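Our consortium's second objective concerns turning raw sequence data into structural hypotheses that experimental partners can test. To show how far this objective has progressed, the report includes one record in full. It was chosen at random from the queue rather than selected for favorable results. The single chain below, 301 residues long, was entered without modification.
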Amino acid sequence: MDYKLTVDFAPIYECVTSLSALVGKQNHNALDAGPPWVRQVQAQFAPVKLQRMKEVMKLTDNFSLSPYIWSCPGERAVEDFLSWFTSLSPGEMYEISGRFGQTVPANLAELRDAAAEVIRVWNDGYFSTINPAILEGLQQEATARTALLDGKNGMEVYEAATQGMRLYPSETLKQIILVPQYHARPLVISSLYDEYVFTSYSCDALPPEEGRPAAALLRLTRALSDETRLFILRLLTGSQLTFTEIVKAAGLSKSTIHYHLIALRAAGLIIVHTSGRNTSYSLRLEALNGLPGQIGDYLKG
């Protein structure tokens, strides 16, 4: 059974993504913005507010807001969404969670109120002050990506947007919602439910500074500058391997291989094959074949 692919964007998506990027300490080194952005933003908040945001995001770790953002009618700017979200009755919240097959915690309303509280603090202290061109670029990306859909090429559009993630149809999967995101670049983040998948994919919403290389070119050249990553690419040439098989062949720790696979995925150098809960990897030649052209275009400027 084929799935339906929809591209969606609203400012509240990026607000939540940016907050998750800040509090997700395990991914700070993988972010394009990196620890300098984290330190700069943290300095804008009192320690007690930072701690509260971390605590609430940890509490709501298994309570994704994506189904609620997707279900929200009308305008979905941050305040518009929060006004609607906090007005939902417990019954309405359970209905939305149940529709997506989301595990419903007993204290759903309490988690909602806590999440709304920290999102409002985050919006007031940081998100409302970001460069508006970021949100404009993300909206333009969503519009352009939607224009590529013809109803039959969902898998191809998904793979192109995510730089190599290939999500196969299944008997249960009905719809994928693709959301461009900026703050967590180059990560691709998915929330999986029985019939729905929400995937936030990396989008370089702002152009590079004059004379500087594009972020995509930097990710590609950096990915190829490491011996272990080149070895992994060699392993995947002509093969489709699981994470465990790559770890065993490389003789390195799981955390190290995970770090290298993030870099290779960000550069679009590998295909991530996902079928149900099973994942494997293979070489994605498109990125390698396009490297000479990207370097040539940059040098000619």
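The partners drew two points from this record. The mean pLDDT is 92. Residues 4-202 form one domain. Both points have been shared with the crystallography group to help prioritize constructs.
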